[in-house]
Amino acid sequence: xxxxxxxxxEAPASVGGETHAGVEAGxxxxxxxxxxxxxxxxxxxxxxxxxxxxxxxxxxxxxxxIGGILEVRSERIRQDLDQxxxxxxxxxxxxxxxxxxxxxxxxxxxxxxxxxxxxxKLDAEAERKRVETNLxxxxxxxxxxxxxxxxxxxxxxxxxxxxxxxxxxxxLVNGKMDKATIAAAVKAAR
Length: 190
What we know:
This protein has 190 residues and is mainly alpha-helical. The protein has a domain at 158-189. It is 76% helix and 3% strand. 0% of the residues are buried.
């Protein structure tokens, strides 16, 4: 056994067949107080008093503060949820207004496009009618000129036919015919 200098070792004492460790010099005697059965009643009394005081402190000071903190947090959470709900409703309203404005803009664009198409159609139709009228006028003028040219040409056809017939008769028969006979023959052939 190890011996510390300055301490004397006592031999274990034997009482009634039990062996007890000896008391070292300067260290007091007995067993560890919390495990000594003779101190259990006072320990239980102090445990009850300490637990009661701790319970009262918790009940009177700590728990109301914790309850207040929890209430403030729950109120803040409720307010945040209410605000989030309002913001969501505002966002939904803004999206609905945007979609409605977009639909109106599309409808206006379609209406403007349709008006432009109708206006272009009307302008094109008016231009077509003006061109057709102008062409009809030019066609009537051309037909009138053709008719004049034709009637002038037809007037001279008789003279040309008479001259040609006189030339042919002269070539064929080597004789002259009078102009009245040739003119009567050309008129009869027409």
